[in-house]
Specification:
Length: about 400
């Protein structure tokens, strides 16, 4: 057996990879994190933490380091109002909470390093080789010098375009995006706040950040994803906003722009031998209501202790297999709900009868509780052999 450089190599230093690194170090495993970006991103794509994630953070003493998060108001299901506290009114973190992804990532990064994780930035993973007792990640460093890291296990936490998933040959079934949303943080504009406001031509959302900038998000009914090599240009976003709302935001200053769609994919297995997936590397979904970030963080919280125990043992391989069993079923359920929400959100006038029917069903407390528990991460585990789609 080749000499091991570390116990686990984690690819991706976003919130999921960094929480996993913290969990591994807490369990005594050596961990090296490889990250393509030279410095943390300033983009805060997600800002919502749900009850189960808050519970996990509280157990780990992270809430004090985060701020703690503030209450985020009511939630929604496909744009229809839904009080998430109905999931479990007695839960200490009932409802939803606000913490910018940049802050979550910074806190987790500081803790991972403090616990002894090695975080290497500016590293591009180019190869992955599995053996019976180890896995080797080949990469190119900041100075373009090739190197390799040999570990007991490797985990891809490197997002929806995961290099680890591709190199390790994971099956990734699902459907590509058929609808596109545009999103931008804009300074210097004064427009009304909007919460899933449906207009004849599209969907408009606007909210003011504490720094005075405004986040806008929009979808023109019937619009399909464009082939893009980067984020959308601000004139495209401003023109679409005018067509939907009649307002001119073209005089504002764009601080951040991106486009995303309703692609829906999930890895057939979250583990292939000594390589595992977590977060968006394992499942891609419309980032509605902050569920993408929360799903990924909950993946990491489940996988970390199991993988650390395996490195210390080793224990029965069934322990690692249970990660797939637990998190794949949770992800499958969440993705089914997200798919339903995407249809309610992004459909045009043709979905109004469906929206009216779902709204009528949501007048019943058991329906609201069921939906709120799934979104909040408090739904009971799915029994083996059951179907939730």
């Amino acid at each position: 057996m080749a000499a091991l450089d570390t116990d686990v190599v984690v690819v991706g230093a976003g919130p999921v990879g960094l929480l996993l690194a913290c969990e591994l170090r807490t369990g005594g495993a050596r961990v090296t994190v490889l990250e393509r970006l030279e410095r943390p991103t300033a983009e805060s794509r997600a800002s919502t933490l749900h009850a189960r994630t808050m519970e996990l953070f509280a157990e780990r003493g992270l809430l004090a380091e985060l701020g703690p998060p503030s209450r985020g108001g009511p939630g929604h299901f496909g744009g229809l109002p839904l009080e998430l506290a109905e999931a479990d009114p007695g839960h200490p973190f009932a409802g939803q909470w606000k913490a910018p992804q940049t802050r979550v990532e910074a806190v987790l990064g500081e803790r991972a390093v403090r616990l002894g994780a090695e975080v290497w930035r500016g590293v591009l993973v180019t190869g992955l080789e599995q053996g019976p007792q180890a896995v080797t990640a080949r990469a190119i460093g900041p100075e373009r010098a090739p190197f390799a890291v040999t570990a007991r296990y490797a985990v891809g936490c490197d997002g929806e375009d995961s290099t680890v998933r591709r190199l390790a040959g994971f099956d990734f079934p699902g459907t590509p995006a058929t609808r596109e949303l545009l999103r931008a943080d804009v300074a210097g504009v004064d427009i009304p706040g909007r919460r899933f406001e449906r207009h004849p031509n599209g969907l408009a959302i606007a909210s003011r950040w504490p720094d005075g900038s405004t986040r806008v998000m929009l979808h023109e009914y019937g619009s399909v994803p464009r082939r893009r090599t980067g984020p959308p240009e601000f004139p495209e976003v401003a023109a679409a906003w005018r067509r939907i709302t009649g307002e001119d935001i073209g005089g504002g200053t764009p601080l951040w722009l991106n486009a995303f769609g309703n692609a829906l994919r999930q890895a057939a297995r979250y583990r292939r031998g000594r390589v595992l997936l977590a977060g968006d590397a394992a499942h891609v979904q419309l980032p509605v209501g902050g569920q993408s970030l929360n799903l990924g963080l909950q993946d990491a919280a489940d996988l970390g202790p199991k993988l650390a125990a395996q490195c210390a043992g080793p224990t029965d391989e069934a322990l690692l297999d249970s990660y797939h069993e637990v998190r794949h079923s949770a992800g499958r359920r969440a993705l089914a709900h997200i798919d339903a929400q995407a249809q309610l959100l992004l459909g045009g006038p043709e979905v109004e009868p469906l929206r009216a029917t779902v709204a009528e069903l949501m007048e019943h407390a058991p329906v609201r509780r069921h939906l709120a528990r799934t979104i909040s991460g408090l739904a009971p585990p799915i029994e083996k052999g059951s179907r939730d789609r």
